[in-house]
C-alpha cells in the first residue's frame, strides 16, 4: 500500500471556483499522495517537467486535485517517482480511478457552485468538522423549514423548485453526517442566530428544539458566543475547519466571504484560523450552559 502523505509544509494552495470540475477531497488526497511521491525523490515540479514534458501548472493542478488523473499521465509520473513494482502501481492507479469518480453530490450540481461541491466533499471525508457562523445557524444543523425561510429571505430570485433542491442537498449532507461512525461536529453558535428568526415563530421554535435534540448526540458539540458578553474574538468570521484521519490531508479551512468562499491550505494561514477558533471556543459557553440558553430562547417563542 502507498504510504500516507505527511503533513509537510506546503505553499499557498487555495481552492477557488475554477473552470472544470470542482476539486474534491478525494482528488486532493490522491494529489497529495503524488506530491509526497515527488518530494520523496527530491524533485521539484520543474524537474518533473524536464523529464516528461508536462507543464509545471499541470503538475500543480494534479497535486491540488484540480485536474482529472489520466492513466497515461500517471504511469509516466510513477516511472519518474520510482514506483516500478506492479502491484503498487496498480494500487495507486485504482486510487486515481476512485478519485476521478463523480461524488454523490454531483446529482445536485444544478443548484450548487463548485465551492459548495468542494465543501460537501470535505464534509464527507473529514474526521472532525469545526464550525462558526455569524449570520445563520450552520447548514448541518438546520431544519428544512428553517432552510427554506433562510433561502427565501436571502435569495429572492430562486423559485420554489430550486429551493426544494437545495433543501434536499442539505438534508442529504445531514443524513450522511449522522450515519458516519466517529465523525465529530463542533459548532460554535453565535447567540444572534438564536435571536434572529427565519420563518414563523413556531418554525424557529422547532429549529431550536432540533438543536436541543442534536445536543444529545455524543459526536455533536455546541458552544455559544453570548450576545451581550464584551470583547469576544468574533472577527474570524464564518469559518469551518476540516481535520482528516491518518494524515490523509493537512487541515483545511473554509472562510465565507462576500461573493463566495475561500479554502485555505497554507500552513500558517490554517494555523492562524485554528488559533482564532480556539480563542473563540474558550470564550464561549460550554455545552450544558449552551443547552440551557437555547431552552431560554425556546420559552420566549412559546
From TrEMBL:
Stretch list, region Disordered: 1-21
SMART domains: HTH_XRE
Pfam families: DUF5753, HTH_31
Cross-referenced PROSITE patterns: HTH_CROC1
Location of the HTH cro/C1-type domain: 34-87
Gene Ontology molecular function: any one: DNA binding
Name under which the protein is recorded: Helix-turn-helix domain-containing protein
Amino acid at each position: 500500500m502507498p504510504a500516507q502523505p505527511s503533513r509537510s509544509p506546503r505553499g499557498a494552495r487555495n481552492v477557488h471556483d475554477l473552470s472544470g470540475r470542482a476539486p474534491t477531497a478525494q482528488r486532493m488526497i490522491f494529489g497529495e499522495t503524488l506530491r509526497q511521491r515527488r518530494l520523496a525523490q527530491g524533485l521539484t515540479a520543474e524537474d518533473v517537467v524536464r523529464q516528461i514534458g508536462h507543464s509545471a501548472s499541470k503538475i500543480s493542478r494534479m497535486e491540488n486535485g484540480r485536474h482529472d488523473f489520466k492513466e497515461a499521465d500517471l504511469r509516466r509520473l510513477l516511472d519518474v517517482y520510482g514506483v516500478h513494482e506492479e502491484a503498487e502501481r496498480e494500487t495507486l492507479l485504482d486510487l486515481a480511478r476512485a478519485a476521478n469518480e463523480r461524488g454523490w453530490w454531483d446529482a445536485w450540481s444544478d443548484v450548487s457552485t463548485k465551492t459548495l461541491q468542494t465543501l460537501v466533499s470535505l464534509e464527507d471525508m473529514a474526521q472532525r468538522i469545526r464550525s462558526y457562523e455569524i449570520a445563520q445557524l450552520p447548514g448541518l444543523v438546520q431544519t428544512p423549514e428553517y432552510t427554506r425561510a433562510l433561502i427565501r429571505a436571502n435569495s429572492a430570485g430562486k423559485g420554489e423548485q430550486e429551493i426544494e433542491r437545495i433543501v434536499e442537498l442539505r438534508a442529504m449532507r445531514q443524513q450522511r453526517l449522522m450515519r458516519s461512525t466517529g465523525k465529530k461536529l463542533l459548532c460554535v453558535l453565535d447567540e444572534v442566530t438564536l435571536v434572529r428568526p427565519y420563518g414563523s415563530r413556531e418554525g424557529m421554535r422547532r429549529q431550536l428544539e432540533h438543536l436541543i435534540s442534536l445536543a444529545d448526540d455524543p459526536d455533536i458539540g455546541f458552544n455559544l458566543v453570548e450576545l451581550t458578553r464584551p470583547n469576544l474574538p468574533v472577527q474570524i468570521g464564518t469559518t469551518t475547519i476540516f481535520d482528516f484521519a491518518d494524515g490523509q490531508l493537512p487541515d483545511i479551512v473554509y472562510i465565507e466571504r462576500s461573493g463566495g468562499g475561500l479554502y485555505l491550505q497554507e500552513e500558517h494561514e490554517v494555523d492562524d484560523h485554528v488559533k482564532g477558533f480556539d480563542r473563540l471556543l474558550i470564550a464561549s459557553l460550554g455545552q450544558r450552559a449552551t443547552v440551557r440558553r437555547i431552552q431560554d430562547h425556546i420559552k420566549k417563542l412559546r
